[in-house]
Design a protein that fits this description.
0% strand
Length: 118
């Protein structure tokens, strides 16, 4: 993401997700509702799906991911790789939301701004 997060995005993260930076990546993904949960029973393997979590953060994260897919080279490459592998649009966007949330959590934990690895 070039520059910083937009004011509305930052506000939503600060107000609706105060745990950002204090939890590990799996916990924060489950808290927001972008972690895939299985629906297995015995030998039957069900489909993975996201559910629950904080809807306001999830909807903000979706819009941030739409922008990141267009403007952020890291998220764009990740999205393109998933689509080339045959993943549907919603699956690829949910994975981008998960990745963006993981990046934001790491940034908050380390108290560092966005940096592209060289």
């Amino acid at each position: 993401m070039r520059g910083s997060l937009r004011p509305g995005t930052s506000r939503t993260l600060l107000l609706d997700l105060p745990e950002l930076g204090t939890l590990n990546r799996k916990q924060v993904a489950a808290l927001v509702g972008v972690a895939p949960f299985n629906r297995d029973s015995g030998k039957v393997k069900g489909r993975r799906a996201i559910w629950g979590g904080r809807a306001s953060v999830r909807s903000m994260l979706y819009m941030a991911s739409v922008t990141a897919v267009r403007c952020n080279p890291v998220i764009r490459a990740f999205y393109d790789r998933l689509r080339a592998a045959g993943k549907p649009y919603k699956v690829a966007m949910t994975a981008c939301m998960h990745k963006l949330l993981t990046i934001l959590n790491a940034m908050a934990k380390a108290a560092r701004p966005w940096q592209v690895a060289a």
